[in-house]
Amino acid sequence: MKKLGWILVSVLLLVAQTSCSSAGDSGKVELTYWPAAHPVEVKFAKDVVKEWNRKHPDIQVKVEPLPASRSTEEVLLTSIAGGTTPDLTSNINPGALSQFVEAGGMYAIDKIDGAMKTISERTPKDTVESFKSKDGHLYQIPWKGNPVMVIYNKKHFKEAGLDPENPDIGTYSKFLKAADKLTRDKNGDGKTDVWAMNPNVEQTWWQRFFDFYPWYLAAKEGETLLKGNQAAFDNPEAVETIRFFKKVFDEGYAPKSTFKENLLAKGKVSMTITGPFALADLEKQAPDTEFGVVPVPVPDDMEGNQVITYGDPKNIGIFKSTEHPKETWEFAKFLISKKNDLKFLKETQQIPFRKDLEKDEEARSFFEENPLLRRFAEQAPYTRATDDSPKLTEAMEALSLEYQKSAVLGKKSPEKAIKDAEKKVNEILKRQ
């Protein structure tokens, strides 16, 4: 009820900003498209829409970046509740999709003539199947994945006596040993000048997709947090994951505060946990710094295993409120064309869900010029999304709170934090 109340109040704030599809006096179809609010994605969206509008005078698309809020999920739930959804968005989190379906907001893509054929020709079969909902329908068009890995500063590694080209940090103990060497007081004033890494200290639920969750997936060889409608993460791997980050904060390998600046670009940390979308900003802010990319570490007894990480996927959704599903699909199909997939790869440095991308001549030459991005593309097949649950946000909020209490604040043991988190998540999942 509290969440519903928040949604209803927030609707009033969004109504003035949003608009749905229409057919103007001239008879032309007008569609609204919400891309993610990230500047590079907004630019890509505007470029694609400009070309589309030029070629399709009878179907005109308007770009409106996602309205600001704590998260995309809150914005979309709010707009569904208030009937103010656009025709489509390209920022659907697969793990939150069932919330939107349950709220009656999503259009089943497989009901559109020819849609599944186009999607299947572009996207690996396993990827398509993984994004189908429990009712068998496909409510999201697979679009992009961004494997979470560790980007590191090669100069820092060399200064710390670590191999900058092939760093041996693939297990917890080796990673922490390197972190101890990388954390330094360079001017002798008794204060840390360079931290080893900077996992986020905030409780915000989605921040756990860039620390706890990829570590957990790697340790569990791809097993996610839920089984059916029940939490299944009270296990040694989850405990050791929190213990790892608790060690990072306890030993001062990471700051216990947040910074607005990019600490990796500024040379204030040696490693950061992120996806390929971070590369463009690093190139802009630190053009003369050489970086490397490695997978997230695994427990010591898993050394040599193929690492599975969080894929941070975002997909395209068509909303049930659209008055023009066929025309909206036609624009979505244009958005995921080979030409625009390659454009998206180059302009945003993110990985589209396209078959044999690395074998495409144009993409291959681009990867040769951008070897760091190639490392992310190589990791892309070995990723997982989150569990698709209408209670995903609440469940992750509960887990994130316990993670913060233990790893960051040191107020609970890792064992107690995981046990309490699973109990709270199960209580959430049982609620109607």
UniProtKB/TrEMBL annotation:
Molecular functions (GO terms): maltose binding
SUPFAM superfamilies tied to this protein: Periplasmic binding protein-like II (SSF53850)
One BP annotation, GO: maltose transport
Signal peptide: 1-23
GO cellular component, one term: ATP-binding cassette (ABC) transporter complex, substrate-binding subunit-containing
Keywords associated with the record: Signal, Transport
Origin superkingdom: Bacteria
Similarity annotation: Belongs to the bacterial solute-binding protein 1 family.
Protein name: Carbohydrate ABC transporter substrate-binding protein (CUT1 family)
UniProt source species: Melghirimyces profundicolus
